[in-house]
Amino acid sequence: MIDLHYFPTPNTWKVSIMLEECALPYQVQIVDITQNDQFAPSFLTISPNNRVPAIIDHDAPEGSRSVFESGAILLYLAEKTRLFLAAEGPARTQAMEWLFWQVGGLGPMAGQGHHFRRYAPDGNEYAVERYTKECARLYRVLDRQLAGREWIAGDYSIADMACWGWVWFHRLHGQNLDDFANVKRWFLAMSARPAVQRAKQVGLAAVSPATKEMLQGDFYMQADDFAKDETRVQ
Ligand SMILES: N[C@@H](CCC(=O)N[C@@H](CS)C(=O)NCC(=O)O)C(=O)O
């Protein structure tokens, strides 16, 4: 059994998607980051960076093992299951390139775009413009990579899982998927996967009623509305 320390966000969706795709048994432990649960001493013992996601694998070879950082968790689960990452060779290298591109580029830059567009006080036009432009550049990079490819790095892999949740919030990055036809095709294809749909519901069902109400009244509802719009476009 795997404990998934979770709050419904792009970084944690990566892991719930992987767990659902691999059909690994797991249970969700909600870490309500709106209530500062991420700073609880018990959580810091498994996630010293006070961020979700983190996992505890109770079936690790040595008994029990915790892993933090979403990219490290994806790699750990891929190596544990031998799924969604080539064991060696160019396919593995390419998937790693795009996994690291996401954790070092798309995630942090889109996260800043998200923050300045959504949460910062007025008067941050410079930051909004900077991160909107950087997100546009990153979306263009991804769009070029997806030209003529179904998935980001060969077969469907942890690289796709890493990127999807961030692209979900493209509106909060100031981006329109109509400007990135390959990203849009990929995004919709991945959104249609049953495991992805299940993975996204996991957290929403598990958060407290008050948190769920807050999330639904906030940007999550916009994202859901967007999903319905995009499905209709298909
Ligand atoms: N590099 C980390 C980033 C994780 C991260 O930023 N998680 C956010 C949610 S998406 C979080 O826990 N935020 C809590 C906070 O800001 O205090 C990873 O990829 O796992």
List keywords for this structure.
single chain, 234 residues, alpha+beta, Glutaredoxin, Glutathione S-transferase Yfyf (Class Pi), Chain A, domain 2, four-stranded mixed beta sheet, 10 helices, globular, binds glutathione
CATH class division of the largest domain? Mainly Alpha
Write the element-wise H/E pattern from the N-terminal end onward: EHEHEEHHHHHHHH
Per the CATH scheme, the topology name of the largest domain is Glutathione S-transferase Yfyf (Class Pi), Chain A, domain 2
Spans of 5+ residues with little confidence (pLDDT < 50)? Answer: 217-223, 226-234
Strand order across the biggest sheet? 2-1-3-4
Whole-angstrom Rg: 17 Å
Largest beta-sheet characterization: 4 strands, mixed
What overall geometry do the principal axes of the alpha carbons give? globular
The CATH architecture assignment of the largest domain turns out to be Up-down Bundle
Bound molecules: glutathione
Structural class, by secondary structure, is alpha+beta
Our count of helices gives 10
Separation, N- and C-terminal Cα atoms: 38 Å
Helix content: 55-70%
- Kindly give the count of domains: 2
Query: How much is the average pLDDT?
Result: 90
| % residues in beta strands | 5-15%
